[in-house]
Amino acid sequence: MCPPRYFAVDYAINPWMDPDTPVDRERALAQWAGLRDTYRRLGHTVEEIEPQPGLPDMVFAANSGLVLGGRVLGARFRAPQRGPEAEHYRRWFTGHGYHDITMPSRINEAEGDFAWTGRLLLAGTGFRTEPEAHAEAQEVFGVPVLSLRLVDPRFYHLDTALFVLSEATGDSPGEIAYYPPAFSPGSQRVLARLFPDAVIATDADAECFGLNGVSDNRHVVLPAEAAALAGRLADRGYEPVPVELSELRKGGGGPKCCTLEIRK
């Protein structure tokens, strides 16, 4: 995770960003700290990277890399404003003992558009990550990759429209939650076939970034406003953990955007 010390909305690179809307940085820092402390309370280790001036979106650490089995695929951002973040995160990985690092040749916004199910890497495209980056990820990790097309610009990253609730085990493909209208008709059919028991989000759930959640297979950290989704998750046996991230949402991010999951 990266503290939002320099968080601001000085430009608009997604539909949620409005430079004319004031940002309360102190409130953003407090909300971010609440998310970090929630992870620690749930028993997870949180590593922090030092934020850099001039990079207000560096707080959205999920876009900085994908880590599976200790192997790292770095990021290559579409928006030039975020481009320098990739090198800062690469240096962090190098300095923390990660030696198998590949920096992508194609535009690849990392966990923003990649979701690991434990058996299959779901990969989004349509607005940010290039389709060719999906093949690049398959070569790096040697795991099957399933391409999914996003069609609603409000849900420009896969992690705004889908997240993994529990990873695959035995005959189970794992469980996901997602918002079907964010995907092309063909991608909707694929998801319905692979995950027939998925939790389906409402319009209201999606619009408050409810699908930008983080699950450890039991606890599900998600925005406090996603009350309907939280209820459905509780009915499935998960423990919803609501957090308040309204200030960071002004930059187009929620819990998952602020969280890079390191799978060693």
UniProtKB/TrEMBL annotation:
Keywords: Hydrolase, Transferase. One of its GO terms (biological process) is arginine metabolic process. It comes from the Bacteria. The keyword 4Fe-4S does not apply. The active site is at H157 (proton donor), C257 (nucleophile). The keyword Transferase applies. GO terms for molecular function: amino acid binding; dimethylargininase activity; transferase activity. Belongs to the DDAH family. PANTHER family: DIMETHYLARGININASE (PTHR12737:SF9), DIMETHYLARGININE DIMETHYLAMINOHYDROLASE (PTHR12737). This is Amidinotransferase. It comes from Amycolatopsis rhizosphaerae. The lineage of its organism: Bacteria, Bacillati, Actinomycetota, Actinomycetes, Pseudonocardiales.
